[in-house]
Amino acid sequence: MSASSNPPARADRPVPRAVAVSAWAVPVMVLARFALLAVVPVAVALVGALTRVRDRAVRGSAALVAVAVAFAVPLVVWPARPDGAPSLSEDIHPGFVGLIVLASCALVLTVHRARRG
């Protein structure tokens, strides 16, 4: 008798849970002033959406890469500036924060739509 403690993976799930959670984590972390740590969910959502999701709308939303591009610009500019703030959250322009949050919300809505149906 072979007993497994791991539940079987759901193959019918159109969007992996890691992509959905990461899509939600990006705007929360950026708004909570953890912008540098938000690199991790941005990468997870982007790679997961492009490689593991069959829904073209989710791939298209992630392929716009608005989240990644909007996040990459301040991430590259921050260490390059000689007079930059000690924290990315302090140095990032509010316009970029808004752009990151809007792009993340678009990805969240697309993921939610794909999971429903």
From TrEMBL:
Record bears the keyword Transmembrane: yes
Membrane-crossing segments per the record: 24-50, 62-80, 92-111
Presence of the UniProt keyword Transmembrane in the record: yes
Keywords from the named record: Membrane, Transmembrane, Transmembrane helix
Identification of the protein by name: Uncharacterized protein
Source organism of the structure: Streptomyces subrutilus
